[in-house]
Every structure is written in C-alpha cells, then in structure tokens.
Predict the structure.
Amino acid sequence: MQVVIVDTPDEVGRLAAAKIGHLVRNRPDAVLGLATGSSPLAIYAELTRQVEEKGLDCSQVRAFALDEYVGLPQGHPESYRAVLERDVVGPLRMDPANVHVPDGAAADLAAACADYEARIAATGPVDLQILGIGANGHIGFNEPTSSFASRTRIKTLAPKTRADNARFFDSPDQVPMHCLTQGLGTILDARTLVLVAQGESKADAVARMVEGPVSSMCPGSALQLHADANVIVDEAAASRLTMDDYYRYTFANRPEWQRFETFGG
Ligand code: GLP
C-alpha cells in the first residue's frame, strides 16, 4: 500500500487527479470506477480543469459507479446516477452511454446486481477505482462485517451512514434504507485503487484501514490485500497514523523512474 500525506484537502484531489489524468492520456478508453460523496469532489474539480485548460479528453472513458440508493424515484437529484451526471459526466464531457450505475429502481434488484457484475466483467477490469471511506470504515456501501469476497448486491445502510448522508436530503428519514453496492471482491478486482480522505472525521477510519488488522469490521482494510492500493490523505485525516513519518519519507524518496507513473510528478 502506498500512503501519501499532503498538506491540504485540495492537494489530495490534485494528486489523485494527476494519476487519473496520466492514465486517461495513455489509455483514452480507460475504465474508471467512480465514487460519490464529498471526498472525491476535489478530484473531479481538478480533472474538469484539465479537460477545460489542458485538453484532457474523457470522451472515450468508460466508467462504473460504486453504488446506488434503492427506491429513489427516477431522476431524484440525490440518486448517485444524478450526482455523477452533475459532478462528473457533464463537467468531464464524458459520453453518458459509457457510464454505468447499478439500477436501484429495478423491479428485480438481484437481477440488476447480477447484470451489473456481468457488465463489469464484459468491459473491465476496472483500470482505476476511485474510493472514499466512511467514518465507520465502509467503502462503497460495504458496511462493517461485509465479506471480502462479496460481489454487487443489496445492502442495508448502517444508521451511522444514513445519518452521515442525511445532509444531502431534506430530512434524515428521506435517506434510503437500502442500496446496491459493488462488493469488496468486485472492488478488489480493479487494477489500481485510489482512496482519498480529508479531515479529522476520517482519521480513525484511515488509521484502522491502513494500520489496523485486516478485518471485515473495517471494510477499508481490504485494501491491504490489494497489490496496487494508493491512499492519499491530508494532514488531518492522517493524524492518527503511527507510521506517518515513514510514509512521508518513502514518498519523498520514491525512485525517479516511479514518479510519473505513480503520481504525475
Ligand atoms: C457514501 C458513499 C461512499 C463514500 C462515503 C464517504 O456512503 N457510498 O462511496 O466513500 O459515503 O462519503 P464522504 O466522502 O462524503 O465523506
């Protein structure tokens, strides 16, 4: 696992976006895994700047969302399809036909999950999966005790996750109870993982993910099993890591040949 600690939340986004931009320049039809939530917004803002000012072309990029709420009416502004269209697909000038989101409005949700796995298998593997982490250690919507072998499926959201996401809705009881999410096994199939976290509220989850035991009690700790997992955090989110000096030292001293392909510098 590569852990990179930077000074500010914006720098988290800039560094992750440098890596993603580098991938897309080299492989214009790269398959990206898209995350929602506040954490990746700085990535999308920086990629948008690259599209507008640096000619980054995302028109052939293919993408799979991590997750989706169940039961929101079609077109609800807080459905993850709507959020991704607003924050990512439009600004990055992606082709909406290339962007896939689990169908949380399907009559047969189990079939929708199987169909989603089949589409990823037919298109993928995902080249680079963007991730955030919940305060309870969840990734995607894989709540604590999720199986590390899990695939896309229906989950019940933890009360803590519903409370955290209530800020996007008019009232807490409007947050859906259920979701469809890529499983931890699905996420681990991606070639590269880039997880970003900012702020003190994520410090505990980050420490458990990076330095805690591999345990389904912290779904993010599944990243310890991945051969190319990159965790980019600001000072506040890094504040409970015990080996922070080592992560700074290794990043500052990474070999010259590794620099561009890892983090764009
Ligand atoms: C949601 C999403 C996750 C996200 C997490 C953290 O529950 N399903 O993909 O990582 O919340 O969100 P935020 O980045 O807003 O803190």
About this structure: The longest strand covers residues 192-197.
